[in-house]
Design goal:
Elements: H1 3-20, H2 26-46, H3 57-69, H4 79-100, H5 126-142, H6 144-155, H7 160-167, H8 171-196
Length: 197
């Protein structure tokens, strides 16, 4: 991290503290510092959606930001924590959007969800997004930390270091949890595919 990036991260953390303390004016000073990163997360997330998706990155960023700054009881630890929560909110916004825009039938057809280091997802359809979310919800009941790692890495696009900061764990823990969660999700998605066939 460059000196400028470190200074900006410190500013974001300070403004999040002010926001958590009830200073609503911090909302307006925070947006310019976090907007580009929120936009990057939203663009990455939307690039995985089906072609012709009508929700735009700007709308997703604005909806997520409004929900983020409206949270009164969040004790923002740092910049990574903020972006982790943003990733989680974007996931929920997209799922709500998918459910209200024709999530009719599930299953049928191979899932093409790839959980790898580049976090590429090819032609994710609404049904696939919902199936992946259901699998992630099951993982969350079994191992909340692994589910959170997937959420931050896959949905939020955070790297290993940023994920470790957001969770307050070591990078080795993130790598281990990421590998285990990916293996579990691959097996779970394969079982789901077999049940649908």
């Amino acid at each position: 991290m460059t000196a400028a990036e470190a200074q900006q991260a410190q500013q974001v953390t300070q403004l999040l503290g002010e926001l958590a303390s009830g200073d609503r004016s911090a909302v307006h000073r925070l947006l310019p510092l976090v907007y580009a990163e929120l936009r990057r997360i939203a663009s990455r997330r939307l690039s995985r959606e089906r072609s012709g998706h009508t929700l735009q990155a700007t709308a997703l960023v604005h909806e997520a930001y409004l929900r983020l700054v409206d949270q009164r009881k969040t004790d923002w630890r740092n910049r990574a924590h903020f972006f982790g929560v943003a990733a989680q909110l974007m996931r929920h916004i997209l799922l709500d959007y998918a459910k209200t825009h024709g999530a009719a039938k599930r299953g049928g057809g191979a899932l093409r969800v790839t959980l790898d280091e580049s976090m590429a997802v090819d032609s994710v359809r609404v049904e696939e997004l919902l199936v992946l979310d259901e699998a992630l919800s099951r993982l969350e009941r079994l191992d909340p930390q692994q589910a959170r790692v997937v959420e931050l890495r896959y949905y939020g696009g955070l790297n290993v270091q940023e994920t470790a900061e957001a969770l307050g764990v070591s990078t080795a823990t993130v790598k281990r949890e990421w590998a285990m969660a990916r293996a579990w999700l691959h097996a779970e998605l394969a079982r789901n595919q077999e049940r649908s066939a």
